[in-house]
């Protein structure tokens, strides 16, 4: 490569640039749920996205065997800190929120301030491929709980993300996460439209995460499959996007809105075809 040629961006840097864009920030904050910009747990087909997304946070927290005032939590890929605020308010936990988008992080800090929870939550600009905390050891306390929602897919080195999570987690600590994945039996090539849309070469799978976790020394306590909720969520986001397209196009590039709708349709089709997976992983550092 000639010295004046730009190096290709990593998947993490590509995601950072995307989520820092004004169009993405406007769309995710106004359509995707506002505070919890993650896949929701729906109890009705027409349920508000924000209600379902909040329920995912509650459901994940309920899966953690030990969570309370003394819990030290690291949320990797924390978005607008909706989960962090819930954990701080409900359990009086202390949370470090690590996220790559400075734009999202600024909004998160403002929301934390407005909720009176800044003393419980520290928002940190950074990547989960290089977690800026020391290795947990007898002399250096790490985190009791690691948390992540629908973020790890944005890395093209997911083994490294799980390795970093293991490194900073205290022995006996728990890692709870969700991630949009390909199904274990997904045929090659059928998800190319989705991969092109999110600028990735692959997705993880349940068997991938299980295998990597066990190789690192995690115990896979549980994996709950809720792929139906991935389909429900993208369907609801598509409905809301189509409903508010005229208003959105006054604030966002119409081409962004069109690409978003096309991408959502690919996710829905992939889920209905059985090519995608989504659920809650609970790992324990032995």
Architecture blueprint of SSEs:
Blueprint: H1 11-20, H2 22-30, H3 49-63, E1 72-76, H4 82-91, E2 94-99, H5 102-114, E3 121-125, E4 143-149, H6 158-168, E5 169-178, E6 181-182, H7 192-197, H8 206-216, E7 218-225, H9 227-243, H10 245-248, H11 254-272, E8 276-277, E9 279-285
Parallel strand pairs: 1-2, 1-4, 2-3, 4-5
Antiparallel strand pairs: 5-9, 6-8, 7-9
Structural class per helix/strand content? alpha/beta
Number of helices: 11
Q: Kindly state the percentage of residues in helix.
A: 40-55%
| Biggest sheet: strand arrangement | 3-2-1-4-5-9-7
List the helices and strands in order.
HHHEHEHEEHEEHHEHHHEE
Tell me which oligomeric state these chains represent: single chain
Integer-rounded radius of gyration: 18 Å
Beta-strand share of residues: 15-25%
CATH architecture: 3-Layer(aba) Sandwich
Largest sheet: 7 strands, mixed
Strand element count: 9
Which residues form runs of ≥5 with pLDDT under 50?
A: 1-7
Q: Could you state the CATH homologous superfamily? A: Vaccinia Virus protein VP39
The CA-CA distance between the termini, in Å, is 44 Å
CATH topology heading? Rossmann fold
